User: What shape does this take?
Amino acid sequence: MKIIWLGHAAFRIEIAQAVLLVDPWLTGNPSFPPARRAEAIAGATHILLTHGHSDHIGDTASIGTELGIPVIAIADLADWMSNDEGQKVIGMNKGGTVTLGGAQVTMVQAAHSSSFRSKGRVIYAGAEAGYMIAGEGHTIYLSGDTDIMADMEWMGDLHKPDIGILNCGGHYTMDMARAAYAARRYFNFKTVIPSHWRTFPLLAQSAEPLRQGLPGVDVRTPEVMEPVVI
Assistant: This one.
């Protein structure tokens, strides 16, 4: 398994026979080197969206069209991607599971918001979500944009993820200290990778509070396009 940070909250996850692009905001992402776009999307089999904000939808339509791959998103957002953007979609909802290239992907709860602006109007994009991604003997909890939730207790107990990709840059999501608290209280991670950070001055620039809050956990802070091999 390889997990590759593409900057901000975008990831490339190579698991089983699937290559998943998560919230692929590449164009205009200050953290992502434009010259490496082809490398970042090469061989991708699916796109996963956590919610409708522009820094998460990003390049979904252009990548989906270029590669001819489906977009997995909550039903409302998937419907818009299909009808307005001409994308192949797999619409689902929280609690639903799909098999993607041998990986089991379950949509789970998040606590955030979800909308985008189109033609001067704010468009509701369905509810925000996270994912549990299981394959190769591991389960990844991809939190999506969220704060701490009591739902994390049953999510940790039921899915037992050993890898956490946690949005923890603060201001728009939980910060590093809150993410560490959630990880300690509700999960038993072996590996944690921070997300939604270092993009803008408004967001956290250091993951040290996360690392200090999770003694005994392997907190990885890779550079953009540097693979984390599990």
About this structure: Residues 2-223 form a domain with the Metallo-beta-lactamase; Chain A fold (CATH 3.60.15.10). The helical segments are 37-41, 54-57, 60-67, 75-83, 151-159, 176-186, 208-213. The radius of gyration is 16 Å. The mean pLDDT is 96.
